[in-house]
């Protein structure tokens, strides 16, 4: 993808773009830096480009692996509404780390990627050392009112085909809709996202990703992990945006405060703290990881 190459060319760190076969998927990823292994797992179907304002700082003391989950970026496309995310995401990430020869890893993950990280740490507790989780799926079954009909496939089909079809403007609006600050929506980043979801024959509308998480009026039970994650061994830094429209602070922060780890709340920040408040995020994240 041309936009991916442009984004890659903006880093001071010499990152390399690679692809590796993992199970049924070809996984696209970038790798760079020196130090302890650090895995970055994006939210929704954004792809590794979500971390473009963080990668240089993270690579100063870490060997960074930023992957595209199946269905995202340059990885194999999937039918999100029919996917088994335990197998397609969690197992794939686990196998990716094994193929790269990584026996212990720190993880920084966002939203749905946070759920993947939590599930991985439950599945392989010896593998995950520290986690930085930004507004992760898994701590509450709450859904904001604007997403409560997303559990109906007919409703999502009408939205994606008639109301919010995939075009560059609509996808830029989608990226900005969950954020308090929107100055990170540069042409290069929007181009990267738009190209990644429209490449090939299958367009991957982000609303189908949201549909996969939703039951009628609430999050699907398979994504609710608040009870399970009390047993997690890994150290955890939980990061929330005070103005997060998807996972409101009042519905999640009390839960993370009661769990193992430390909680940070970013003021004047929505759902994507690593982009909206990237300087503060880079400082806190890198200090925590050491």
- The stretches of 5 or more residues where confidence is low (pLDDT under 50) are none
- CATH fold-level label: Rossmann fold
Average pLDDT, to the nearest integer?
94
Distance between the termini: 34 Å
Number of helices: 11
Percent strand equals 15-25%
State the assembly state of the protein chains.
single chain
Strand segment tally = 8
Helix-strand category = alpha/beta
Please identify which CATH superfamily we are dealing with: Alpha/Beta hydrolase fold, catalytic domain
What is the number of domains?
1
* Largest sheet: number of strands, sense, barrel closure: 8 strands, mixed
CATH architecture assignment name = 3-Layer(aba) Sandwich
The CATH class is identified as Alpha Beta
Describe what is shown at a glance.
This protein starts with a helix and ends with a helix.
Model description:
It is a single chain. With 290 residues, this protein is α/β, with parallel strands linked by helices. It has one domain: Alpha/Beta hydrolase fold, catalytic domain (Rossmann fold), CATH 3.40.50.1820. 36% of the residues lie in helices and 18% in strands. An eight-stranded mixed β-sheet has the order 1-2-4-3-5-6-7-8, sandwiched between helices. Helix 3 packs across helix 4 and helix 6 crosses helix 7. The longest helix has 15 residues. It starts with a helix and ends with a helix.
